[in-house]
Structure formats: structure tokens, C-alpha cells
Amino acid sequence: MDNKWKKIAFRVAIVIVCFWLIEFLTPHFSLTQNLRQASLELWSYPANYFSHLYLGLSRVGDLFNLSQIKNENLKLKEETLTLRQENEDLKQKLSAFNKCAELLKLYPSLETIPAQVQGFFQEGGRAYLLLTKGKDDGVEINKAVVWGKYLVGKVVEAYPHSAVVETILSRRLVANVYLSDNAEAKGIIRGYLSNGLILEGVPTEFQINQGGIVLTSGLGGVLPPHLIVGKIIKKISSTSEVSQKFLLEPLIDFHNLEVVFVVKR
């Protein structure tokens, strides 16, 4: 048994010596280097396979992560839209509060009904608003409609849950007014071309300046006094006419009104 192991050890020693002689005597040929290179080439195949497999699994993981990121992004967009809507609602409420405060400052005892504007329409010389409040909410025909200290118009039709407001841009609405810088200079206003106003009936003895503010006089008892109607742009009457006529610019953007106030009493 011992002789057998001695023979094996002797043979191994002979092989090692042969390898050493080959490496020493042939510097341009390295058997160990060739064996190492061959082993590396053999190992490269499974290594490349597992490397591609790993990359593939990583990409699958990235797909799951991408789907998760998309879902999170969608949730963030929805939350952003919700916050924007809430912000717009708060802005609308704040604007309504400020306009109500303006009106109460002008008329401390005035009672009003806030109403949302459902739409602004212009046709056949008319310019009117459709409100979401009606008779069941206390809205009555011929009541003034205001936006803070500005005159919007008056109610001409009232239904249980809606109402129609004839605005100051309508030719059907006529209001008694006066000039802010001269209370004695009175006249009447009516709509003009569905986007402007005409001030007429002002006596010729009064000097009216461009940029003057026109206010309601309260004559007739339908519209409260001292509400802003518009601003004078230019004189359009001739010197031969018995009274003066002016073109006015409204100071309200009727297209973007969201909330108005119907005067209750």
C-alpha cells in the first residue's frame, strides 16, 4: 500500500518537473498561460450567460419599478389637480367675501343673496346672466344685482332655482346716474353694442372730463345709489345737440364673473 502511494507521488513529481522544464526551456510558449487562457475562455461562456441573465432580471425589476413610478406619478397628478381645484374654490370664496365686505361697507344694513353665475349670454342687444339661485332662495324680480360696489344689473326673470339678470350692457336696462366729481351732472345709461355703455341726457352746462366715474343715483328706488357703473371714455355728441352723450367703459369683466349678490332689501 505504501509502495502504491510512493509511485503516485513519484509520478506527480515527474509531471511537475516536466511542466517546469517546458516553461523554462520555451519562454515563447507558456503551457500554464495557455491553460489559464483556455480555462478563462471556457469560463467566459457561463459567465456571459449568467451576466445576461442578471441584466435581464434587472430589467424586469426595472419594469416593475417603472410601473410603480408611473402609478405614483399619476397619483401625484391627481392630488395636484385636487389641490388646484381646492385653491380655485378658496380664491372664489375669498373674492366673494371681499366683494361682500365692500358692499357692507357702503351699505351696512343691506341684505344680499350670494349666487353663482352659470353663464353670460349676449344676443339681440341683450346681455344677461343666468344665476343658480331663484325664488326658493328669496330672489325677486326687479331686485338689483351687484358685485361688491359695482352694479351688475337687475333681475328680470325668477324661477324656483334660477334667475335671469339683465346686465348694464343690455339695451333693455336703463339706470339713472350721476358723475362722481359733480353730483349735479345727472343722466341715464344704457347698453351699447353689447360691450359698452352710453351715458346720455347730461345737460350741456356741465364740463365732463374723460376718465370720470359714473355712479347710480338711486332715483326710482329700484337700484341702490352710489354703485359704480363705468368710466367715461369720450364724448360722442355734437355741439348742436341739446344734451351731452358719452361713451362709457364698464369696470366689470362680465365674462369671468363667478359670484354676484342679489339685493334682498
Order of helices and strands: HHEEEEEEEEEEEE
Percentage of helical residues? 25-40%
Shape: rod-shaped
Strand content: 25-35%
Q: Helical region count?
A: 2
- Based on secondary structure, the structural category is alpha+beta
List low-confidence stretches: none
Mean pLDDT comes to 80
Across the major sheet, the strand order is 1-2-5-4-3-12
> Span from first to last CA?
126 Å
* Largest sheet descriptor: 6 strands, antiparallel, barrel
Radius of gyration: 45 Å
Count the E strands: 12
Descriptive account of the structure:
This protein is an alpha+beta fold and 265 residues long. The chain is 38% helix and 33% strand. The protein contains two helices and twelve strands. It has helices spanning 2-25, 31-106; strands at residues 112-123, 126-131, 144-147, 150-159, 162-167, 175-179, 182-192, 196-203, 213-216, 228-235, 243-250, 259-263. A hairpin with a 3-residue loop joins strand 7 (182-192) and strand 8 (196-203). The chain starts with a helix and ends with a strand. The mean pLDDT is 80.
